[in-house]
Specification:
By secondary structure, this protein is mainly alpha-helical. It has 18 helices and six strands. It folds into three domains: 93 residues, Fumarase/aspartase (N-terminal domain) (Fumarase C, Chain B, domain 1, Orthogonal Bundle), CATH 1.10.275; 262 residues, Fumarase C, Chain A, domain 2; 34 residues, no CATH class. It is 60% helix and 5% strand. Strand 1 and strand 2 form a beta hairpin. The protein is elongated and about 90 Å long. The protein starts with 13 loop residues before the first helix and ends in a 7-residue tail after the last helix.
């Protein structure tokens, strides 16, 4: 049986072990490469202060790279009795290298060890989510460019309101996605501090060079206060999940709109049949299940942040085992959000626009407010003009829908959309995010010799 990092002179009760470990050992397959990165940085730090010799460091480096190869082949096993990837990695190194493997944990607690692995995971999760979100915004911008002068009924309270366009609709979500992506800078900077060396919240008496190990892992700085480093667990995860929830909220609204606009009774848009599913009883059905599940997955993602906050809200300072249950919602949240963004992008790319149905939907009452504005321009007061039109709605004539779009010239309206503004904002955000991604890739290459990202 694998030895535990906290091994005692007794065997833990099997029911308690199952309860405390739960599915952590399965989840930790997501953290193996992150932990290898942190372990190698820690080993280099131990060599720097004389705990390890050059030969011992070389052996540990070789062993850790073997774990990378096994992981990439799907052959690195984490068993329930291991509890987590940290024990499994140390166990592998000890079995492979003997006493050298027993030195890898010197000066570390499993607290700062898992904190560091999670910090690496979250840092990368942010750049991957932003990369996908910018792809989605690009699809929305392209939809706007291709339909810049395609009219569309604007709605409030779900009722006919004022003239709009497909481009205005698409760009509204592109700008929302871009604003959400811009939030990532502050969040990434917050995550980009290393907790390694904080141990079990109170540091150790070894002269660990925390700045050195932080630089090896590509962190901007150390998380200074060792107790705060521990207390931030769960808090940082909740912030990441909050970020994901804002992305999901945007997608949920897109999905709701598309379910309405693809109704046969409206027919403004349609999804390719390949992006719909059927009914077990009604042969004619082509159901927008992807859009419906996007709404549902949004609810799932929103709940995960609250789940983490509920776990940490009353914890005393220092490590508490409750933190273990913040890992699953973080990993689940990233995977659900990334998948949600990609499927939404796929649906936007496949969306078919039907100009004839959109123009047909631009009924005469859509132009009631335009008639009011015309009277104002000819010297009438707004309130008198409003009353005059409102009492004679049957006299409101339908405008040419395309010409009506061009009459709106204020910034951000259908005749002055400034699509190039959104495109430029996307370019700048992508440049910043690509820089972060390149930095992480270079860090992993220098530290563990792999060129791809690790989650």
């Amino acid at each position: 049986m694998a030895k535990k990092l906290w091994q005692k002179n007794y065997q833990v009760d099997s029911m308690l072990e199952s309860f405390t470990v739960r599915n952590d050992y399965i989840l930790d397959q997501n953290l193996v490469l992150s932990d290898v990165c942190a372990s190698l940085a820690h080993a280099k730090g131990l060599k720097k202060i004389g705990i390890l010799t050059s030969e011992e460091l070389s052996s540990l480096e070789e062993g850790l790279k073997e774990i990378i190869a096994l992981k990439e082949e799907g052959c690195f096993e984490i068993k329930q009795q291991d509890e987590d990837c940290h024990t499994a990695i140390e166990g592998y190194l000890t079995e492979r290298l003997g006493d050298v493997g027993k030195k890898i944990h010197t000066g570390r607690s499993r607290n700062d060890q898992v904190q560091t692995a999670l910090r690496l995971y979250m840092r990368e999760a942010i750049v991957k989510a932003v990369d996908a979100l910018l792809d989605l915004s690009d699809s929305l911008i392209e939809l706007a460019k291709n339909n810049e002068n395609v009219p569309m009924p604007g709605r409030t309270h779900m009722q006919i309101a004022m003239p709009s366009s497909v481009a205005l609709w698409a760009l509204s979500f592109a700008e929302e996605a871009l604003d959400t992506a811009s939030l990532s800078k502050g969040l990434y900077d917050l995550l980009n501090q290393s907790p390694l060396g904080s141990a079990a919240s109170y540091g150790v008496t070894l002269p660990l060079d925390r700045e050195y190990t932080a630089s090896l892992m590509g962190f901007d700085r150390v998380q200074n206060n060792v107790l705060y480093a521990n207390n931030s667990r769960g808090r940082f995860e909740a912030m990441v999940l909050d970020f994901f929830s804002y992305i999901a909220l945007t997608i949920s609204k897109i999905s709701q709109d598309l379910m309405i606009f693809t109704l046969p009774e409206l027919g403004y848009f349609s999804l390719p049949k390949e992006l719909t599913t059927g009914s077990s009883i009604m042969p004619q059905k082509k159901n927008p299940d992807g859009l419906e599940l996007a709404r549902s997955r949004t609810a799932l993602i929103l709940s995960l942040s609250e789940r983490v906050k509920s776990i940490i809200k009353c914890l005393p300072s220092g490590y508490n085992r409750d933190f273990q249950d913040t890992k699953e919602p973080l990993i689940e949240g990233f995977k659900a959000t990334f998948e949600l963004i990609k499927i939404t992008e796929h649906m936007i790319d496949g969306l078919e626009v039907h100009p004839d149905a959109l123009i047909k939907g631009c009924v005469s009452e859509l132009y009631a407010t335009d008639r009011v504005m015309e009277k104002v321009l000819h010297g009438g007061t707004f309130r008198d003009s409003y009353l005059s039109v409102g009492l004679n709605l049957e006299q409101v004539e339908k405008d040419d829908p395309v010409s009506s779009l061009k009459k709106r010239t204020s910034t951000g309206t259908t005749g002055n959309l400034k699509i190039e503004y959104s495109a430029e904002q996307e370019r700048m955000l992508r440049e910043e995010n690509d820089s972060r991604m390149d930095h992480l890739s270079r860090t992993y290459h220098q530290l563990i010799g792999i060129d791809q990202l690790i989650i």
